[in-house]
Specification:
The protein is 31% helix and 23% strand. The protein is α/β, with parallel strands linked by helices.
């Protein structure tokens, strides 16, 4: 007998037969049995991550008890059914992996199951369930696409352009948007595209004049550090000759054209001044300045899509007001050419600091990096091959893994155990790039691989900082072309120099603060109120109790893409991958509310860590 075959299954049972048998038991148990019986289908160590389909929330359940509690509260209302294997299941390392589809009372879904054989039969190790579409509210695509023209003779017929321009002119004036999205960068644009396809009236407002300006306005040398396969926008992938790492201005142009092609309602040169919740009307009042003219919007739902961070953090250093050179936060730094033959000091040692230092050095500037604490360095080629290549690469595409499938595979790994998947990647990186790491440490650079050795992406999720994807600057640091001062900071600033905490002094014509950003809920304090910001709590982070990510453990990113403690207020952000992937689930939550569906949120996350 095959020792891997679970109890009750034939010795030669295929992975597909085992997966379908489990799915059948899972469906039947939810319909006919007590929640504890369904939870018993899971392994002792188990995880069920739900993206909206069961919970109208984004939640991960990390025990049989938590699963049973959720099912007791939600299974009858959800009415799950039609669980069916999708494609061929596979088995590797004693784990069966299977895609499946299913339905609920109001939606259709897709999921990914991982099974382990036990003496008592197959048990689920991880389960991902995701909402794909709402029944009766599907996107008008494929066979549902609109005709586009009404054939026949119609006196006074208006053209497509006339209709579009009239609708655009009415929105925000005669007609109020159901959703206002504050922030017209990649996050706001991706969400706007999802809502447009779902027929939800949404207006994106952005302080910059043009879509893509948030990229155009960054420092001249900026390129994406993530590869093209990871960065597609919803519905409209980059062309197949798009560079692996695109320049900022190229991304800016793509976002601008995308906004037009997707026919998004987008107001540039529009500043949100204040937002207030009106309890009587159950709507928001949003005061804006559009091209300098005051206007009031009254949406039912308000989304803050202002990136992954809050305001730039600029340290208060004695003597700053006496500096005779130029001092600027990295978010405001633009070009390096004018600093040829000058001296620059860059405070910080993460992505922006390295990029800016490298550009300054390339342009003939004498530049010194001040490293206050350790930094994780991940060489780009190694990151591509070891960490991303299996899901986001030409090789992945050749194996049938496009970005849609890759996103779900990525999402199926629970945050609680995600670090265990990443530790071997960075152990391999230590070996592969041992020479670079040795030379960096010899130069005095403080290296780390995360507090548990899990590397870049876990740092990104936990704190959004503390790393550099090396695209060349590390070589400049290792060989001393970018000068380095580590284990120190700036004690005070002089008219033409800075004094460090070790008493040494550095001449400076330019001082760049590559010192990061605050929490996203700082935006809420100013645009809504400090009370609302504190009610929402900290945004981002998992509660891992690592540096800059205090507990308690939450199991999901705080407040992102899901209901918050403030009704009808949402937070949307992240990198291009997250903006694409999670905009789908935020859009479905908003569409359900727009359609008047009942959306009982299971286990609304408590707020933690005020500003």
């Amino acid at each position: 007998m095959n020792p891997a075959a679970p109890s009750g299954m034939p010795a030669d049972a295929t992975p597909g037969a085992r997966a379908q048998a489990w799915l059948t038991r899972f469906e039947t148990s939810q319909r006919d049995g007590p929640p504890a019986a369904t939870a018993a289908l899971f392994d002792d160590a188990c995880y069920w991550r739900d993206l909206v389909s069961y919970t109208w929330n984004i939640r991960t359940f990390e025990s049989r008890e938590a699963i049973a509690d959720m099912l007791a509260a939600r299974a009858a209302d959800v009415a799950p059914s039609a669980f069916a294997l999708e494609g061929e299941a596979t088995e590797a390392g004693g784990v069966v992996e299977a895609w499946f589809t299913f339905e609920t009372r109001v939606s259709r879904g897709r999921g990914l199951l991982r099974l382990k054989a036990t003496p008592d039969g197959d048990r689920a190790w991880t389960l991902l369930t995701t909402m794909v579409e709402l029944k009766g509210h599907e996107e008008k695509k494929g066979p549902r696409r609109i005709k586009g023209v009404e054939h026949g003779i119609h006196p006074g017929r208006k053209s497509w352009l006339e209709q579009k321009d009239e609708a655009h002119a009415r929105l925000g004036h005669e007609e109020q948007p159901y959703v206002v999205i504050i922030g017209g960068g990649q996050g706001g644009i991706a969400l706007g595209a999802r809502l447009k396809r779902l027929g939800v009236p949404a207006l994106i407002i952005e302080k910059n004049p043009r879509p893509g300006d948030s990229w155009r306005n960054r420092y001249k040398s900026l390129h994406l550090h993530d590869p093209v396969w990871y960065d597609h926008l919803p519905y409209l992938p980059f062309p197949d000759d798009w560079p692996v790492f695109a320049a900022k201005d190229k991304i800016g142009d793509w976002l601008e054209h995308y906004t037009r092609i997707m026919e998004l309602d987008y107001w540039g040169s529009t500043v949100a001044e204040k937002a207030e919740w009106d309890e009587a009307t159950q709507s928001w009042t949003v005061r804006v300045l559009r091209d300098g003219q005051p206007l009031t919007l009254r949406p039912r739902q308000l989304v803050f899509a202002l990136g992954v961070s809050g305001y730039p953090h600029i340290p208060q250093i004695p003597g700053a007001e006496r500096f005779e050179g130029v001092q600027v936060h990295s978010s405001k730094h633009r070009t390096a050419e004018q600093w040829r033959g000058k001296k620059a000091v860059v405070l910080g040692s993460n992505n922006s600091a390295h990029d800016i230092c490298a550009a300054l050095w390339e342009n003939g500037c004498d530049v010194t990096m001040i490293q206050r604490s350790s930094t994780h360095i991940a060489p780009s080629d190694s990151l591509m091959e070891l960490a991303l290549g299996g899901l986001y690469s030409e090789q992945a595409l050749a194996q049938g893994i496009d970005h849609h499938k890759a996103d779900l595979i990525f999402a199926s790994v629970p945050y609680k155990i995600m670090h265990t998947f990443h530790i071997p990647v960075y152990e391999a990186m230590k070996v592969r790039d041992a020479d670079l790491y040795a030379r960096l440490e010899k130069a005095g650079f403080l290296l780390d691989f995360g507090e548990d050795g899990s590397g870049l992406f876990m740092k990104y999720l936990r704190r959004g900082s503390g790393y550099y994807i090396d695209v060349g600057a590390s070589e400049l640091v290792a060989d001393g072309r970018i000068k380095l001062r580590s284990r120190v900071s700036i004690e005070h600033i002089n008219p033409r120099s800075v004094t460090l905490t070790d008493g040494s002094e550095l001449e400076a014509d330019l001082l760049v603060y590559a010192t990061g950003y605050g929490s996203m809920n700082h935006w809420l304090a100013d645009l809504v109120s400090p009370e609302v910001a504190d009610r929402v709590g900290k945004c981002w982070g998992l509660g891992s109790a690592t540096t800059k990510d205090p507990g308690p453990w939450e199991g999901e990113l705080r407040n992102m893409w899901k209901p918050t403690q403030v009704p009808q207020l949402w937070i949307h952000g992240g990198n291009l991958h997250q903006s694409r992937h999670y905009s789908q689930f935020l859009a479905l939550q908003l569409k359900a509310r727009h359609a008047g569906l009942d959306t009982p949120v299971y286990q609304l996350a408590p707020s933690h860590h005020r500003r």
